[in-house]
Specification:
The complex is a heterodimer of chains A (about 325) and B (about 525). Chain A has about 325 residues and is an all-alpha fold. Chain A contains 14 helices and no strands. Chain A has a domain of about 220 residues. Chain B has about 525 residues and is of the alpha/beta class. In chain B, helix 11 crosses helix 12 and helix 13 packs parallel to helix 14. Classes of the chains: A mainly alpha (about 325), B alpha/beta (about 525).
Chain lengths: ~325, ~525
């Protein structure tokens, strides 16, 4: 019985991490005053390119690097279009999403139909490296050890990124400058902050972080390409909503993604729960499974409504978000 | 004389428009130089070239006798130039300390680095600033924000300080305090350029005055050897009279009466707190108060744009509470509000003058098509009457200079023939010439028997132009004074809430003797 619980907790973490990557990446970009709606596409590109590189070299490290670089390049494209050419951020972001998801299907279909076929993950060294790590003693602690300290390396990296990002924003001068740009780029500019450089750097890094989330999702699904279903499956969009829920704070993003992890786990494990506790939770089986699949999106909607109702809920929103900055604009 | 700055032959164009033409200007070390010129004479453009926001097309800049190139705000800051912009460049969400911290170099990478706070506090103490470093800018009053801006540039070691219209948003007492700080900075060896439209301030603070007209440099005069009249003539290029007319009219019955009005602002706090006042026909009532004392909310409430919490508004015997803005307009109350960014309210910047005319009375046209022909004729009338400078009636409003935009807005409002005209900051940021045109327009309306509510900033102007002035502080009425029987100082003290004369000698300000209110209504 305890096992069901442990597994449930374990899965919450597993399902929250891709969202955490997407959300923290987007927070970094939005803090610089840019609204990037291309999360879904950026994650898709990071996923497929990183996965293929990992399968080719049999190395998780290479997969991560390539994924980060590939999605970072997408970020560079976004920066070039919106910062240098002053294109509309919303349209650019949507274009990137459309392009990224299409790119995923294109590569996937092309490879699946080629002679070698889509590279399998199962049993490779690449697969082994992404599997949960057993940390001596800590992982052996009953319950907690299995639920919290028996995860793959990318889980810890994701949490580390959120913590570091919080520190960066709140305690360091470059973080202060970044936030100043998001709030009032003209003020930052007048103080000698290189607005263009800051925007480029942080959009690229933020996009890179999203790409890692995409890679993680691909690995989590066993690396199998299906022609009908993208690995990212709308998580990029939920990430954008979570940024608002988290009030633009990486620390709160951790909490927010855990809630979504919970509902996702419910989707996967509702039958197991109902079986383990037939009296208390037996009713779970009566709910159609499609409802559980739709649940994250329904929750997103509810969360957006609640956080938009309270003015305090959006206190972390950068004031200059979505507007391009041009120094000589009057 | 040793020079802190010398500009030689500076020119700058924006497309076909030449903003600065061959300008020569010098700032001596340890002096306060006033830069004077009408709107659009190129003062701000010139200063922005010193602060690294624009780059000159030609000409050279010398700092401390050395030729320099200023390509970015960073270069400017390294040369010891600090600019306090007209629209503050502060991050609202940050504290004072964080705002200053952004620009401090060589103090490590952590926000609360070892000596940062101490250094800022020392600088503040040296010049006698009182400032709470942990207060968020969003919670600061305008004068505090300005203090922060000045402290900021001093902390970065600026020796040359440029202030762009620093007094526009301050009260009389705050201006005195600012000038005291500027003198202290001058004693300390700083060189200062101050841009202002107000001649009395130029005379009070500056050592020399440099004058620009239509982008060209006219001359530099020593303040002690000149007077306001000479300066005006240099600035405008011809002789003008400096007196504002105040025609005295036969006052009629109260047109608009406001009783016990309470209005909340966007944040839900009380912005206007149980205010009483009335306007008679042929009368101009001024509204004085520190920026953000509820002026905007008051105007919006009268125009029907903001829900009122309590109180009554009676226009010619009929309550206008709860009426739609359109209904109120048809009733004869017209409101024009010039916000700080000047374009934000009332006009659509990308539309032409004609189209902006249509915005107000689109529903008068028959059928579903826009009647552009008559609108164009009306636009032409406004242009002719108010001397709007524009290539045509089809020019987008955005392309006009600030003064002309304001004339278009006011012209449209008086075109509908209101009998109560509410106008807020109609001369905000305008030069003397355009301001006088606006005053004349208002006076003409007054002569027609229109009651005017004039929300203003410049007390000197209000004392000359308005018949009576009501003073508000934090949304409360501090009293209504007759312009002929008061002083600037008294109004200043009322604005800060030091004096309240609403109930004096047994009568209450703001309630008319021949009120249209019945007794029960008045009490309700």
């Amino acid at each position: 019985m305890l096992d069901v619980f442990t597994l449930f907790l374990f899965n919450i973490i597993v399902y929250n991490i891709p969202l955490l990557y997407g959300t923290t990446g987007e927070i970094m970009i939005e803090k610089s005053g840019s609204l990037n709606l291309g999360v879904e596409g950026t994650m898709a590109i990071g996923a497929v390119v990183g996965y293929l590189a990992g399968a080719k070299t049999d190395s998780l490290l290479v997969a991560c690097l390539v994924s980060f670089i590939a999605s970072g390049l997408v970020g560079a494209l976004f920066s070039f279009l919106t910062v240098t050419l002053q294109a509309n951020q919303n349209v650019t972001g949507l274009t990137i999403t459309t392009f990224g998801v299409a790119f995923y299907y294109f590569i996937g279909n092309a490879l699946s139909n080629s002679a070698g076929g889509w590279p399998k993950l199962n049993g490779t060294a690449f697969d082994m490296q992404s599997q949960p790590i057993h940390i001596p003693f800590i992982s052996d602690i009953p319950f907690v050890g299995k639920a919290l300290f028996s995860h793959g390396i990318l889980v810890y990296v994701g949490i580390l990124i959120a913590v570091l990002m919080w520190f960066y924003f709140n305690k360091t001068v470059p973080g202060l400058k970044l936030r100043a740009i998001g709030e009032n780029p003209a003020a930052a500019d007048s103080l000698g902050v290189n607005v263009t450089l800051y925007k480029y750097t942080h959009i690229i890094i933020g996009s890179g972080i999203m790409g890692l989330g995409g890679l993680y999702m691909g690995l989590n699904l066993g690396g199998a390409f299906e022609g009908s279903n993208c690995w990212i499956n709308g998580y990029g969009w939920i990430s954008i909503a979570l940024v608002i829920f988290a009030n633009w704070s990486p620390a709160k993003a951790l909490l927010g993604t855990l809630i979504f992890g919970f509902f996702n786990t419910l989707r996967v494990q509702n039958a197991a729960l109902a079986y383990a506790f037939p009296d208390a939770l037996g009713w779970l089986t009566k709910i159609p499974s499609h409802f559980f699949s739709a649940l994250p999106f329904i929750i997103t909607l509810i969360v957006l409504i609640i956080s938009s109702l309270t003015s305090k809920g959006r206190s972390g929103e950068p004031q200059a978000i979505g507007r391009n900055y041009y120094r000589e604009d009057r | 004389m040793e020079f802190a700055i010398e500009l030689k032959g500076i020119s700058k164009s924006f497309g076909p428009v030449a903003a600065n033409k061959n300008i020569n200007l010098s700032l001596a070390k340890g002096e306060i130089l006033a830069l004077l010129g009408e709107n659009g004479s190129g003062k701000t453009t010139l200063m922005n070239m010193l602060s690294g926001i624009y780059m000159p097309d030609s000409g050279s800049i010398f700092i401390d006798g050395k030729k320099v190139e200023i390509n970015s705000p960073e270069d400017s800051s390294k040369l010891g130039i600090g600019m306090v912009h007209q629209h503050f460049k502060l991050v609202e969400k940050f504290t004072a300390l964080e705002n200053i911290r952004i620009g401090i170099r060589n103090e490590g990478r952590l926000v609360h680095g070892a000596d940062v706070r101490k250094k800022i506090e020392d600088t503040a103490a040296k010049f006698g600033f009182e400032i709470d470093l942990d207060k968020k800018v969003a919670n600061m009053a305008v004068s505090e924000k300005q203090t922060l801006e000045i402290l900021k540039v001093l902390c970065y070691g600026a020796k040359i300080i440029i202030l762009d219209e620093p007094t526009a948003v301050l009260t009389v007492q705050e201006i005195d305090r600012l000038f005291a700080v500027l003198r202290k900075m001058r004693e300390d060896g700083h060189s200062i350029i101050i841009i202002t439209h107000k001649l009395n301030e130029v005379m009070a603070i500056s050592d020399r005055v440099a004058i620009l007209r239509h982008g060209e440099y006219i001359s530099t005069v020593v303040t002690k050897e000149t007077d306001e009249k000479t300066l005006t003539e240099l600035m405008v290029g011809r002789k003008i009279s400096l007196n504002i007319d105040r025609p005295i009219m036969e006052k009629t019955h109260p047109l608009l009466e406001i009783r016990d009005l309470t209005v909340k602002n966007d944040e839900g706090a009380v912005a206007i707190d149980h205010i009483n006042f009335y306007i008679r026909g042929g009368e101009m009532l001024g509204v004085a108060g520190i920026a953000g004392s509820g002026q905007k909310e008051l105007c919006e409430a009268i125009a029907g744009l903001r829900k009122i919490e309590e109180g009554q508004m009676i226009h010619e015997g009929e309550s206008i509470v709860g009426m739609s803005p359109k209904k109120i307009l048809e009733h004869g109350i017209s409101m024009s509000f010039i916000p700080e960014d000047r374009l934000g309210m009332g006009l659509a910047p990308s539309l032409s003058i004609t189209d902006n005319m249509i915005l107000k009375n689109y529903n008068e046209a028959k059928g579903i098509f826009v009647d552009r022909k008559s609108a164009r004729a009306e636009a032409q009338k406004v242009i002719d009457r108010l001397e709007v400078i524009t290539p045509s009636t089809e020019t987008p409003v955005r392309r006009l200079s600030g003064g002309n935009v304001q004339k278009v807005l006011l012209g449209r409002e008086i075109k509908s023939g209101p009998n109560v005209l509410v106008t807020a900051y109609p001369v905000r940021g305008l030069d003397i010439n355009s301001s006088y045109t606006i005053y004349n327009i208002l006076n003409e309306e007054k002569k027609k028997g229109v009651g005017i509510l004039f929300v203003g900033e410049d007390l000197d102007v209000m004392l000359e132009l308005c018949d009576k002035i009501m003073v508000i502080c934090h949304g409360r009425l501090q009293g209504v004074v007759n312009s002929d029987h008061t002083t600037k100082e008294e109004i200043g003290l009322m604005m800060t809430g030091t004096i309240n004369i609403v109930n004096k000698e047994g009568k209450t300000d703001g309630i008319a003797k021949d009120s249209a209110f019945t007794d029960e209504e008045g009490k309700a």
